[in-house]
Write a structure and sequence with these properties.
Helix 3 runs parallel beside helix 4. Strand 3, helix 6 and strand 4 form a beta-alpha-beta unit. Helices cover about 35% and strands about 15% of the residues. The protein is an alpha/beta fold. Bound molecules: adenosine monophosphate.
């Protein structure tokens, strides 16, 4: 009997779960499902997004619905249209072997008549945003007087967005005897008030620590001068060729400006904010989901409800006004057990906010330095080599091989490799040579006081940096790789530092006295049948022991910028290119990049089209409803 069977789920649900490939219930599922199946009860569940809570309420709900009765029996309220559609989709997937269950999504920005028609056909489960739901109740288009179940999903988000009155009104229209299941990541007063007013002795379950960040997300900050903020963002993207990220800005204007600059510089980026029309937002989200956009630049409000799996990084280009919002931002990554990184680009004046956030998320930030030009160059080069190695050959090219062989005749393997890599790389090197290194700041005494840093004598450039052919693809993050290296090499706690994990490879530092051991031991070790290969890297990783909270306090900052250590390639690309190398504007998109459409002719300006500019009159104060196509009433003014 598998673990799902033990929860008491029906055959048809178990079959759907098998199709979905869920092997084991998540913590919230394990806790909530048996309780909800056993009896009709109210429940308050504290769980972050990405913990599997849709199934935690979805499975028992489907099992309890009477498929032979066409009346509306359950209402699920969720904060945004995006989320509403996702839940609807999930419920449809879960109930695919359950005959006769109808789920309808209702949300603003779409035809109310059509939605009313769908409901009239018989919808046992309605998934709705509160604004549109209230609207439909007022117009008599929906009847929830018979519902047995009401689910408030992401209750804190809904209240944050000003839906309090709508929720109260909706709940007041529904029968007292129903069961209410409330899911929320946090428990602010307003949520507690709703629970108190509308729920009867709710069972409480908590997943993970209250208000804590997800254990699968690691948090990093980069201290920079305010003028270098954008440059820092670009370098972070360059140092992570596989980045698939949401970049948060505070205002719509900044969001648009950063996205436009990124696109101009050849990155595959797009803006998402409330001044865009619904159709524009849909287009952006479609491209993001399809991974044609690597960097989605968004406001907090517009990014609510983004539920895209496998986001590798959340970038806080600017910290939010309210630090609680940080939790919501970082929760976009590290979902469904995957590892993710939340990056903060911070200036000295904002540094104290980092400590406040650490208290809220109950996790420490790691202070890091913006990678130098030479480090980025090495990462990109190795990424390219990996990409070449992993590329599957389409045998269509076999026909052309004789001709190609003719052209390349006489070149040795070595020469051929060098030339192939140089095709992509020469331009890149040329770019970075021209540009200055950006000035990394150090949090200095502020962080050292908290015992996070080491004394300055560690602040040396004498460390040896290594490249090793294992990375996140082998399920390592910097912490687990550091542990693995320490154990394998039998080294002490602080002997391995500056561990940087990329997809197919990683870097780390040791002091020179360990070099022989590292080379000898690691080059003779196998990981799951694969030989580990370690080499000494040309770059020194910034020379600082700044990983793992061991900041050296600004090493190298006083020294003259190294010639090779400074670049910010201007990617005049189509958004294509192998793993972050963008091709020239007029060249064809290359294999492996993030392109909008593989089959079409190359387009000017790459992803320009995926970042719709704001239409005329953008100075006017936009109505909040424009962000969602719904009509929440804002309770707290936000800078969006
Ligand atoms: P949620 O918290 O409901 O938004 O779920 C986050 C993601 O986890 C979704 O993509 C779900 O499909 C996935 N998921 C939910 N339950 C499980 C499970 N038991 N095993 C694996 N993935 C799951």
């Amino acid at each position: 009997m598998n673990k799902f069977e033990q929860l008491g789920l029906s055959e048809s649900l178990l079959k759907a779960i098998l199709d979905l490939g869920f092997e084991n219930p998540t913590e919230v599922q394990e806790k909530a499902i048996p309780l909800l199946l056993e009896k009709d009860t109210d429940m308050v569940a504290l769980a972050q997004t990405g913990t599997g809570k849709t199934a935690a309420f979805g499975f028992p709900l489907i099992q309890k619905i009477d498929a032979n009765n066409r009346n509306t029996q359950a209402l699920i309220l969720s904060p945004t249209r995006e989320l509403c559609l996702q839940i609807t989709n999930e419920i449809k997937n879960y109930s695919k072997y359950e005959k006769g269950i109808n789920v309808v999504a209702i949300y603003g920005g779409a035809s109310i008549t059509e939605q009313a028609r769908d409901i009239k056909r018989g919808a046992q489960i309605i998934v709705a945003t509160p604004g549109r739901m209230q609207d439909m109740i007022n117009r008599g288009l929906v009847n929830i007087s018979q519902i047995n179940y009401c689910i408030l999903d992401e209750a804190d988000e809904m209240l944050n967005m000003g839906f309090y009155e709508d929720i109260v009104n909706i709940l007041s229209t529904s029968p007292d005897e129903k069961s209410t299941w409330l899911f929320s990541a946090t428990m602010p007063q307003e949520v507690a008030r709703i629970a108190k007013q509308f729920m009867h002795e709710p069972l409480e379950i908590t997943v993970g620590a209250k208000n804590s960040g997800s254990a699968t997300v690691s948090h990093e900050f980069y201290l920079v001068n305010a003028r270098d903020r954008y440059e820092a963002l670009k370098r972070l993207a360059d140092a992570n060729p596989d980045i698939f990220s949401v970049v948060f800005c505070r205002t719509k204007r900044d969001t648009q400006a950063v996205a436009e600059k990124l696109i101009e510089d050849g990155y595959s980026a797009a803006a998402l904010h409330g001044d865009l029309s619904q159709a524009q937002r849909d287009g952006v989200m479609k491209s993001f989901r399809g991974r044609q956009i690597q960097m989605l630049v968004a406001t907090d409000v517009a990014a609510r409800g983004i539920d895209v799996d496998n986001i590798t990084h959340v970038v806080n280009y600017q910290l939010p006004d309210e630090i609680e919002t940080y939790n919501h931002r970082s929760g976009r990554t590290g979902r469904a057990g995957k590892l993710g990184t939340s990056i903060v680009i911070v200036t000295k004046s904002e540094l104290r906010k980092i400590s406040s956030i650490e208290r809220i998320i109950k996790q420490k930030f790691e202070e890091k330095t913006i990678p130098s030009g030479i480090e980025i160059c090495e990462i990109q080069l190795l990424h390219l080599a990996n990409k070449i190695k992993d590329t599957e050959v389409d045998h269509e090219i076999d026909n052309y091989l004789p001709a190609i062989n003719n052209v390349l005749e006489g070149l040795s393997k070595e020469e051929l490799i060098k030339k192939m890599v140089s095709v992509e790389f020469n331009r890149f090197i040329a770019y970075y040579k021209k540009n200055r290194d950006i000035s990394n700041q150090s949090s200095g005494s502020e962080r050292r006081e908290r015992g996070d840093s080491e004394p300055r004598e560690f602040n040396n450039n004498g460390a040896v940096r290594y490249f090793v052919n294992i990375g996140s693809r082998d399920n390592f993050d910097w912490m687990s790789l550091k542990d693995y290296l320490k154990e394998t090499l039998d080294l002490g706690r602080d002997d391995v530092f500056k561990v940087d994990v990329k997809e197919g490879f990683s870097f780390f530092n040791t002091d020179p006295e360990h070099t022989d051991k590292v080379m000898e031991v690691l080059n003779n070790v196998q990981l799951e049948g694969r030989r580990i290969n370690v080499e000494i890297s040309k770059n020194d990783g910034g020379g600082r022991r700044d990983h793992n909270g061991r900041s050296g306090g600004g090493a190298g900052r006083s020294s003259a910028p190294r010639r090779e250590g400074s670049f910010a390639p201007r990617r005049e690309g189509s958004g294509g290119g192998v793993g972050g190398f963008r091709s020239d504007r007029n060249s064809a998109p290359r294999e492996g990049g993030f392109r909008s459409d593989r089959n079409s002719a190359p387009r000017e300006g790459g992803f320009r089209s995926s970042t719709p500019r704001t239409e005329g009159g953008s100075d006017r104060a936009p109505r909040r409803s424009e962000s969602f196509g719904d009509s929440p009433r804002p309770r707290r003014p936000r800078r969006d």
